[in-house]
């Protein structure tokens, strides 16, 4: 199967950069969002990021011009998805919202189109059954910031056709990513399971008053060699995401240990969601 046109649904934290990765790889990309502000922000990002890469000597002017020409932002889901060969969903981490979207995508998209979800933890078998093409629905999970992080997790659930996984791996490679294939579905995949264990311990130490979040971050950076500590990383990926992941997990398992930690709930309620709101654990100048 030849993929030329990609639709990215959701222009938020992940979607806007996934769309750019695809456009830089030469795909014709349509990025859509129900929130016009998110769409505008994503377009503004593309319009500043590409010239900055040229100024830094990381991209030729021609490659930047081509990538920008490959990328369209549109509020209409139908316009964005009706001729797509491959769709990457990057909307809110809410199962019902994803199921509604995939049912609609199934109606809109060409029969050959693969529908991938960038969910951080929801396995695609929980979504695929709302479509008439479950064999073409899979997980394709990028990491934040998607323009920088090389890994992509491709999850081969029991319903996923070999060709779907193979095409998804090829798309990831063409975007310059290193795909890893999970042979079975598991909640949180590889990376977020490992990260969840680190975060749970970091939040426990903080909530118990053992150390400040700055010192816990320093410990992880300076002793374990991570590029950033767990609190700074939560600010990057979004404290709202940490909250939603915890709540979804808790709804599913009923295990109180899966609930988001007190400080995550507090920050979520206050709207201190990290870099995207200008304040999380740390303060950021510009939103
Ligand atoms: N968007 C795009 N590019 C960015 C960026 C951003 N938000 N932040 C940094 N960059 C780019 C810079 O432009 C720079 O590129 P070049 O070297 O090509 O010029 C490069 O990244 C390095 O940037 P900096 O020198 O400014 O900063 P740094 O060296 O501290 O790197 C970082 C920043 C890449 C974010 C690094 O700190 C890092 O790798 N942090 C860990 C990120 C991580 O763990 N991500 C996974 C999160 S888990 C997840 O994503 C799961 C999920 O489901 C949501």
In helices, the fraction of residues equals 40-55%
The hetero compounds bound to this protein are: acetoacetyl-coenzyme A
Strand content: 5-15%
CATH topology of the largest domain, by name, is Rossmann fold
Q: Which structural class is indicated by helix and strand composition?
A: alpha/beta
Q: Termini separation (Å)?
A: 41 Å
Morphology call: globular
Order of neighbouring strands in the sheet with most strands = 3-2-1-4-5-6-7-8
CATH architecture of the largest domain: 3-Layer(aba) Sandwich
Low-confidence stretches: none
Number of strands: 8
Question: Would you kindly provide a written description of the structure presented here, covering whatever features stand out?
Answer:
The structure is a single chain. With 287 residues, the chain is an alpha/beta fold. Helices cover 48% and strands 13% of the residues. It has two domains: 5-182, Rossmann fold; 191-276, Orthogonal Bundle (N-(1-d-carboxylethyl)-l-norvaline Dehydrogenase, domain 2). An eight-stranded mixed β-sheet has the order 3-2-1-4-5-6-7-8, with helices on both faces. The model has no long low-confidence stretch (mean pLDDT 96). Acetoacetyl-coenzyme A (CAA) is lined by residues 56, 58, 120, 143-145, 147-149, 192, 195, 227-228, 233, 237.
């Amino acid at each position: 199967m030849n993929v030329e046109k990609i639709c990215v649904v959701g222009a938020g934290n992940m979607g806007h950069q996934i769309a750019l990765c695809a456009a830089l790889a030469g795909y014709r990309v349509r990025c859509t969002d129900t929130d016009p502000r998110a769409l505008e922000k994503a377009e503004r990002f593309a319009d500043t990021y590409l010239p900055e890469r040229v100024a830094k000597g990381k991209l030729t002017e021609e490659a930047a011009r081509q990538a920008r020409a490959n990328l369209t932002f549109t509020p209409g889901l139908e316009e964005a998805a009706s001729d797509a060969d491959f769709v990457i969903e990057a909307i809110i981490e809410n199962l019902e919202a994803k199921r509604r979207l995939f049912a609609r995508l199934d109606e809109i998209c060409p029969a050959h189109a693969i529908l991938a979800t960038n969910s951080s933890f929801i396995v695609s078998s929980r979504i695929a059954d709302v479509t008439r093409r479950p064999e073409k629905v899979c997980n394709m999970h990028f990491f934040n910031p998607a323009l920088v992080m090389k890994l992509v997790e491709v999850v081969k659930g029991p319903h996923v056709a070999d060709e779907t996984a193979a095409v998804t791996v090829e798309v990831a490679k063409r975007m310059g990513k290193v795909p890893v294939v999970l042979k079975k579905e598991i909640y949180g995949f590889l990376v977020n399971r490992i990260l969840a264990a680190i975060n749970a311990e970091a939040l426990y130490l903080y909530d118990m008053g053992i150390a400040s979040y700055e010192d816990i971050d320093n410990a992880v950076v300076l002793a374990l060699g991570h590029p950033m500590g767990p609190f700074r990383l939560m600010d990057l990926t979004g404290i709202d995401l940490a909250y939603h992941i915890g709540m979804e997990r808790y709804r599913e398992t009923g295990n109180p240990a899966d609930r988001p930690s007190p400080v995550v709930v507090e920050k979520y309620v206050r709207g201190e969601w990290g870099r995207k709101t200008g304040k999380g654990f740390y303060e950021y100048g510009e939103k």
